[in-house]
Q: What sequence folds into this?
């Protein structure tokens, strides 16, 4: 990662910097670097899915570091999410909460910009939620809970059940087994996972019972 550019050279104190691409920083400086409390307003648009609009929070040696809030937009300018939490070296890192455009919410640990460690992902549309461990943005091991009380607890791969696991149903029945994926779909690490379809509570295998 490139070192932060010093601007203005050697300046310390409170100041506003307007960059040639239209971006603006308002806040504290130390040795010519953004350091302390400050707000960065992004005017330029990147080619990535996530392009920041505004970051307001703590800085260290020219990088986002500490607690801060960042609003994201897509490449067309529409707002797609908000993150509030800890940062390190310009990346989401540590405890934080991400609210997505569809109102899904992830709260938990981050590492170098990706969901990593213990966390909870809540699906706004269905009311389902996953509570467990993530690694590099993917579900690894945890519990998927439905609004009716049904849940699956076990291993996950590509955000789907895989390996040892147990379904627990609202009627008290349980189905334990080893699950394997027949059809898989890779999910980019910074996109929301799909909701999980629960099996029939009357039998352990695929069936035609309505549900």
A:
């Amino acid at each position: 990662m490139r070192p932060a550019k010093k601007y203005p050279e050697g300046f310390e104190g409170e100041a506003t910097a307007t960059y040639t691409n239209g971006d603006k920083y308002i806040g504290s400086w130390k040795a010519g670097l953004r350091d302390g409390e400050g707000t960065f307003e992004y005017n330029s648009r990147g080619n990535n899915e996530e392009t920041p609009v505004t970051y307001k929070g703590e800085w260290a040696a020219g990088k986002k570091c500490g607690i801060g809030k960042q609003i994201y937009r897509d490449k067309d300018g529409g707002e797609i999410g908000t993150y509030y939490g800890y940062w390190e070296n310009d990346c989401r890192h540590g405890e934080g909460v991400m609210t997505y455009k569809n109102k899904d919410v992830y709260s938990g640990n981050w590492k170098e910009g990706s969901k990593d460690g213990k966390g909870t992902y809540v699906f706004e549309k269905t009311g389902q939620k996953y509570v467990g461990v993530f690694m590099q943005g993917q579900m690894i091991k945890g519990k998927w809970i439905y609004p009716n009380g049904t849940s699956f607890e076990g291993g996950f791969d590509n955000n789907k059940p895989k390996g040892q696991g147990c379904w627990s149903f609202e009627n008290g029945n349980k189905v334990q087994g080893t699950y394997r994926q027949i059809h898989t779909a890779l999910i980019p690490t910074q996109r929301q996972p799909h909701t999980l379809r629960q099996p029939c509570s009357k039998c352990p295998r695929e069936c035609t019972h309505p549900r």
Observations:
- The chain has a mean pLDDT of 83.
- The domain at 1-101 is CATH 2.20.110 (Histone H3 K4-specific methyltransferase SET7/9 N-terminal domain).
- The first strand starts at residue 13 and ends at 18.
- DSSP finds no helices and 14 strands in the chain.
